[in-house]
Specification:
The protein is an alpha+beta fold. It is about 25% helix and about 30% strand.
């Protein structure tokens, strides 16, 4: 399931909801489509235990009936844990997401390959994390197709810590921005820390909504 794109995942949900007999509400216009939206699209290759989704219905159905019907239509790899009714005019989940929390595992042998290639490698992961957090800014470039974007990577990281080191692996915890103003990418944070290769795994553990944030002082 981690290798399914966001668009394919949305098609999966649409088919599952239809098979479950859920009375979906549709958009208006020339090409109506079901009103389903994820709070924050999940990048290809990333697993998660914290996804949130808005599903608009054309008529009332009890949350427990929604759950039982939908669970019969999904196979291994996806679980639906909870459903609750909200007012139709409530803000969308997508508009409320502010941060995403990740658990990222990186292999220590990446250090050896980085040294052989003449690149910097993190000898002390804790020290690198400390230097990253102490930096006021960290300009970064990201290339997508032929477009090159420059931005401050440090401003996208709210929290960063070493969760565990064992058996040749480092597990990092990250809380990254995820709002219309910008979204942090875990693989760019590990690259900024000095790891030469991509993470072994990226797992999203939580989405933080505006209503869950600490009050500003």
């Amino acid at each position: 399931m981690a290798l399914i794109s966001h668009l394919d995942l949305m098609r999966f949900w649409e088919r599952a909801l239809r098979r479950a007999g859920i009375p979906l509400a549709y958009s208006q216009g020339f090409s109506p489509h079901p009103r389903i939206s994820m709070a924050a699209p999940l990048a290809l290759g990333v697993t998660s235990e914290a996804e949130l989704m808005d599903v608009y219905l054309s008529r009332w159905i009890a949350p427990q009936n929604f759950l039982s019907g939908l669970r019969r239509q999904i196979g291994p790899g996806i679980q639906v844990t909870e459903a609750s009714a909200i007012p139709v005019n409530a803000p969308s989940l997508q508009s409320q997401v502010r941060f995403a929390e990740y658990r990222v595992v990186v292999g220590k042998e990446e250090e050896d390959r980085a040294i052989c290639a003449g690149a910097a490698a993190p000898a002390d992961i804790g020290a690198e994390v400390g230097r990253f957090l102490e930096a006021k800014s960290l300009m970064w470039q990201h290339t997508r197709d032929t477009e090159v974007r420059s931005y401050d990577l440090r401003s996208l990281v709210k929290r960063l810590w070493v969760a565990e080191e064992k058996n040749g692996e480092v597990s990092l915890g990250m809380v990254l921005r995820c709002d219309p103003g910008g979204a942090g990418r875990p693989e760019q944070v590990t690259a900024a820390l000095g790891f030469a290769g991509p993470p072994r795994s990226i797992h999203r553990t939580r989405l933080l909504l505006e209503t869950q944030m600490e009050p500003r002082r």
